[in-house]
Model the fold of this input.
Amino acid sequence: MPKRYIPHTDGEIKEMLSSIGVKSIEELFKDLPAEKRVSQLNLNKGLSETDVLRKMKEWSERNSDLEDYSVFLGGGIYKHLIPQSIQHIVERGEFLTAYTPYQAEVSQGSLQMFYEFQTMICELTGMDVANSSMYDGGTAAAEAMLMSCNIKKKNHYLVAESIHPEYLKIIQTYAKGPEIEIETVKYNRETGMIDLEALKNKIKDNTAGFLMGYTNFFGIIEDVQKVREITKEILLTVSCNPVTLGVLKAPGDFDVDIVTGEAQPFGGSLYLGGMTLGIFATKKEFIRKMPGRVIGKTTDLDGNPGYVMVLQTREQHIRRDKATSNICSNHAHNALVAAIYLSLLGNTGLREVAIQGLKKAHFLAERIDRMDRYDLAFTGPFFNEFTIKSQNNPKYIRDEMIKEKIMGPLPLMELTANEEHEQLSLIAVTEANRMEEIAYFASRLEGLL
Amino acid sequence: MRRDNKLIFEKGAKGRIGYTFPDENIPNYRIEEMIPQEQIREIPPELPECNEVEVVRHFTNLSKLNHSIDNGFYPLGSCTMKYNPKINETVAMISGFVNLHPYQPESTFQGALELMYFLQQALAEISGMDEVTLQPAAGAHGELTGMSLIRAYHDDRGDIKRNTVIVPDSAHGTNPATAAMCGYKVKEVESNENGRVNLKVLKKMLNNDIAAIMLTNPNTLGLFEDDILEIQKLAHENGTLLYYDGANMNAIMGKIRPGDMGFDVLHYNLHKTFSTPHGMGGPGSGAVGVKSKLAPYLPVPHVKKDEERFYLDYDIPKSIGKIRGYYGNFNVLIRAAAYILTMGADGLRSASEIAVLNANYLRNKIIKRFKIPFGKQCMHEFVADGSLLKKYGLKTLDFAKALLDYGIHPPTVYFPLIVHEAMMIEPTETESKETLDHFVEIVDKILEQAQSDPDKLKEVPYTTPVRRLDELKANKDLNVRYQK
Done:
C-alpha cells in the first residue's frame, strides 16, 4: 500500500482490529455478497512519485504546448495574460483543501471571498444579485433557461441561432427532462446580428424567455436595447464574455433579466476548456428562483461581521425534488482565481485588457479585410473576435498556420456543422497577442497560396 | 490576533493596480469608431484598486480563516475529505497540460486524450462498467447526465410511460432534485429497521411507471445494502434501471463493483474517491459509467481510440447531446489520473480497507458514548444520534460547534434525515490512529462539559475567527453584495 498517504503500521492495524473485536479487515466486509466480490482489479501497479511524474511528462509531451504558439483561437476560451501571483495564492491548502462552507465559523475565508466575488459580478453585469459560481458558460445559460420557464410557468423558449453552438446543444439537453420546446431565432446573414423581425414573430403566448449572446458567437456586439424593446413580455437572458464589460455597457443598464457568462478569461488557464467558471446574475425580485449557492452578510454573537450561506431553502439538500436546481457545490476555486484576478487588475486593468483586445482585433481585421482572398463575413460591430470569409478552405488555413507556430483561426463549420459556414473562420485577439505576432499572422495569411 | 474585517473593496487607493502590461505600440483607434455609442459603458464597474502586495496579503489572510484538510481532521460524512496528495498539484501544472485550447486540432493533444482514455478505462474497471464519460463537471452534474441517459434509454425503446423514480428516504438531496430536473416524479421508499431499503415496500412500489431506482451502496448510513442482488433482480424484471450514486465509492474499491452488483449507471465524485481537491466546493468531476446497453446515449464527444490515434467521437446518433462545454474539467482529470497511477490496484483496495477499518474503529468508540441506531458494524462512515444531548438542553449543533474550538471540523450534521440529531462521521483512510484517538478524547471533554456547564456549550465556539452567526438575520435582511 502507498504508505505515504496511509499512516497505519501493521501493529496499529492489529490493535485496531482487536479493539473493534474482529480478526481481520475482511470481516468488516462480510455484508458484501460473496459471489460478486472481485479479487483483483486489472489496473497498474502503484508508482513512485518520480515514476508518476515521468508518465505524466510523457503524456504532456505528446501535446502541442500553446505556450510556444501565437494563439488566435477563441470560441469561449481565451488566452489572456495571467498575473503570476494568482497561482501562488490559490495553491494554498486552506483554499484548495477546504470544502463547501457548511461550518461558517471556520470558513470565513471562503465565504468572504464569495461575497466579494458576487459583488464583482454584480458590478460588472450591472445586476442586483449574483450567485457564487456555476460550472461554465453553457450550463449557466441552460440554468437561466430553466429558471425563466419556472418563473413564467411556460414551456417554450427562444435561443438566438448566433449563440455559442455548444451552449445551444447544452440547452437542448437540459430542456428534454422538463419537456421545454427550444426554438432558434435566425441571425441576419449580412450583419451577423439577431434578425429582430424573426424574433418578434417567434414570440408566442407560451414563450418564457429569450437567450442571446453579447457578444455573440461570431464576435458581434448585439443590439441589446432593440432586443429588449421587443421582448418586454418575456424574460431576457444575456450570455456574455465578462471581459468585454470593461468597455461595453453593462447588460443591467438595458434592463435584462438574467446575465450569464463564461469567466475563464478572468485568470483561468486554458486547460483544454476544462477550467471554466460560469457566472449568473439576476434582478433582486428573482433571487429566490436563482440556482446555486449565495452568500450573505450577517453578524456573530459578539456583533462582529461575518458571512453565511443564505436562501438555502431553494436548494436540493432542503427542498429535494422541489429545489430550483440540483446544483450544489460548483466551481468555487475558479471563482477565487477570478476574484484575485479582478482585485489585481481593478477597473483600470480590466478596461486595458478589454481595450487592447478590441483595438488589436480591429487592427488585424482591417489588414485581413484588405487582402484579396479574405473578407469580413459580417458588417455588424465586433469586439475582440471576428469572423472572416476566405477563398481557401478554413481547415487548410488552420493547418498551414500551425506550421508557423500559430494556433488559429477556428474553422467555423467544425462547430456549427452548418454548410453555410463552409468558408468562415473565427479569429480571437487578446492583449496576450503582441503587435508583432499579429503582424506576422496577417502576413502569413496573406502569403497563403 | 484581531481579525481584519475589511473587504478588498475597502482596501487600496484610487489609482493603484496589481499588474503591469507590456509597453506596446497599439494603434490609437477611438472606441467610438469601433463600438456604437449607445453600447459604450459610461459608468465603470467599482472594482478594487490595490497593488500586488495588498492583494496577496488580503487573500492570504482570508485563507487563514478557513479550516481545511491541510490544517486538520475533517470527518465530514459523505464528502470523503481524504488527504489531497501534493504531487497531483505538480502534475496539474505541467505546461503541456495547462496550455491547450479545446479547439486546437485533436492531432495536437494526443497526450491529453491518452490521459483521458486511461482514466476512462481505469474508472470502468474500478466500477465494473463498460464505458465511462469524463464530461460531467460535478457529482450533481453526473447525476443529471446519468438520469438523462436513463430517460433516453426508455424513450428510445418506446417505453415512455415510465414517469417515476424511486429514491430511499436516506438519499442525498441531489437524487430527488436530479430526478425532478429530468422530468420524473419522485417516490421515497422507506428504510427498514436495519437501515436498509425495505424490500417488501419496494416490491409493492415497483410497477410499469418506475423508470429507475437511485441508490448509494453503502448507503448514507454507511451500511451495505445487503439485499442488493434481490433489488437488482426485482428492478430488472420490472424493466426498471438501477442508478448508483458513487458518493460512497471509497468504501468498496477493489472489493466489489457496482457493475457486478447489477447497477446500470453510476456517477463518480473524483473529488471524493480520487483525492482531487475540493477547492471550497469545486471544480470537481462527476464522471459517469454505464453498462453497454446505455452506451449509445452517452454525451458527445466521447474519447475513443483506433489503430493509430485517440479521437473525440461526435458520431453518437442517439446521444443525449452535450451536457457542458468542451470535454470535462481537465485540470481535475489530470489529478485523478495521477492518483490512480500512484495507488495502483492494490493501493486503491488498501484505501478502501483502511477507510472501513478507521470508520469501524471510531464507531466502536463512539457507540459507547452516543446511540448509533442502525447496524452492528459499518463501511466507510457511520451515523450517530445526538439525542442524548437533549437532557442537558443541548443539540447536535452545539456539539458540532464545540468541536470547532478544538480545531476539528464537525461531521455532517442533521443528515441523513431518518436519524434524529444525526452526526455523520467519515474519517477516511488517510487519518492515523492518533487522530482518531484524539477525536474521541475531545468528544469526552465536550460530553463532560455538557454535564458540568451546558450553558457555555450553547455559545461555543469561542476561539474561531467569528462566533456563531445569525442566519435568521442573514436571510431576513438579505445583503449579498457590498455597496459603498
